[in-house]
Amino acid sequence: MDLAGRTVLVTGASGGIGQAIAEAFAKEGAKLVLSGRRASELEALAERVSGRVVVADLSVRADVTRLLEEAGEVDVLVANAALPGSGELSEYSDAELDRGLEVNFRAPIVLAHALAPRMVARGSGGLVFISSLSGLAATARSSIYNATKFGLRGFALALHDELHGTGVAVSAVLPGFISDAGMFADTGLQPPPGFGTRSPQQVAAAVLEALHANRAEVLVAPYPDRLLSKIGGMAPNLAGRLQRLGLVGDITEKMAAAQKSKR
Ligand SMILES: NC(=O)c1ccc[n+]([C@@H]2O[C@H](COP(=O)([O-])OP(=O)(O)OC[C@H]3O[C@@H](n4cnc5c(N)ncnc54)[C@H](OP(=O)(O)O)[C@@H]3O)[C@@H](O)[C@H]2O)c1
Hints:
Layout: E1 7-10, H1 16-27, E2 31-36, H2 39-49, E3 52-55, H3 61-71, E4 76-79, H4 94-122, E5 125-130, H5 143-162, E6 168-175, H6 200-213, E7 217-220, H7 223-234, H8 236-244, H9 251-259
Parallel strand pairs: 1-2, 1-4, 2-3, 4-5, 5-6, 6-7
Helix pairs in contact: 1-6, 3-4, 4-5, 7-8
């Protein structure tokens, strides 16, 4: 798809990966609609990429509807906004639980439900859903994040097949640990021994690759991380035993503590 002059809606554009995605689309000549809650971050990005800002809280259903109205005709949706959703389930308040599900799972589906028919009618468009390697394999203290990322991945893969032949590309992009900026980098933690990182710019490049090639799924992580995640997804009993033996160390406890304020 030639992106010059096309309208691209990026949710979570104020975040680490969202900014890199917006910048990558701007280089392709796209017109950007940038959404998130933090107006100041979005305005600064909008200046850099000549974008338009729509401030919206995706945990508020009326805001999701308003975002659709204010975004107007959208050629490509990048559903990137998410909360870290880490921590033990028993520590979650009902409000935190609802927020995680609404932002990470319901909002992308509602946006796609509204936008996809218009793209199909035009015979072109794209929907890219930012899932995670946590959409392939689960860990303790990540039940909400795993639930939403597995779910979003399943939604994207189903829609990819459903819209085959319509001219509308649908992809799931699954980053692993991302360095420099974003919800993992913000914790100041390092990946467990044997795991590596990729940059926000590499996630952005994967989004463009997924869209241009209409790839069902693209993983953005070093080979060992991708392999372990796939094995973890295929063999959850083994993955659980390896985690209890210390494969990922104490990273899940540390991430939950560092990300608690983002629930
Ligand atoms: N960083 C990683 O290592 C990593 C790994 C795998 C997958 N991912 C995925 O990559 C995507 C981007 O994450 P990131 O690392 O860039 O995280 P981030 O820096 O924390 O950004 C999260 C984005 O989501 C937005 N958001 C959060 N709550 C929202 C709400 N209630 N309403 C509207 N927007 C909301 C934030 O905007 P405001 O704060 O302005 O509301 C922000 O723009 C997510 O889907 C994440 O799950 C990240």
